[in-house]
Amino acid sequence: MSDSVVYAVADGVATVTLNRPDAMNSLDTPTKVLLRDTIRAAADDPAVRVVVLTGTGRAFCVGQDLKEHIGLLQANDQAALWSTVPDHYAPIALALAEMPKPVIAAVNGVAAGAGASMAFACDVRVVADTAGFNLAFTGIALSCDTGISWTLPRLIGHARALELLYFPRTVPAAEALDLGLATSVVPAADLPDTVAELARKLAAGPTVAYGAVRQSLGYSASHTLAESLAFEAGKMQETGATEDHHNAVASFVAKQKPTFTGR
């Protein structure tokens, strides 16, 4: 079993760690398969109430492993070259963006190409002050993938998204915060504790309600107001039937702080 992705669950928090530090956490095929399957497992695990995605070493993830890519180009293996987008990158993006629980990107270092795309598919990006983003696709004459065409314009607008994709450069953490790529920027030494505190807070919250909010925002991005209102109504009924809602209302009446179980 490859150890290029490390998975750990504790107190409702699942941490998915890319673990190829010598390759700056680049994504070869075994790593992509394991990452896809691990994120899907976290999404489906009822014991997991929040997911953290991060990397080891000096990079979060620099995207596709170019050594592998060059080998496939030289072998003219067209099937392996391009099937990776629908087989690996797209499912990873969907699992991150659509799972019914919060997802945090703990951006410990540079996030480039698909690495940046994965971070943008998360709800929250806590970024080390030494980290940055590089939308490197056109720098090697490729289009973009892993959902960035959908997520990036929604974070920073269409025109700015085009600019960063047309003219790839490393966007440092402070600028990323100003643009809206980062949710928060913290000293690199504080990143683990900051993310752990945020993850604990989310893991102690109303998980079903968080998932419904994620799904409602995602749905509304490509549907009409009338359709979104109907979707909201369904999610209100769903969350209204949870133990967490009933307990929270009872706690409000009793003037007590509610405790959420995620059910």
TrEMBL record:
CDD domains tied to this protein: crotonase-like (cd06558)
Q: Looking at the record's lineage, which domain of life comes first?
A: Bacteria
The family database entries (Gene3D superfamilies) matched by this protein are listed as: 2-enoyl-CoA Hydratase, Chain A, domain 1, Lyase 2-enoyl-coa Hydratase, Chain A, domain 2
Matches recorded under Pfam families: ECH_1
Q: Which family does it belong to?
A: Belongs to the enoyl-CoA hydratase/isomerase family.
Q: Can you name this protein?
A: Enoyl-CoA hydratase-related protein
Tell me which species this is from. Answer: Kribbella karoonensis
The lineage is: Bacteria, Bacillati, Actinomycetota, Actinomycetes, Propionibacteriales
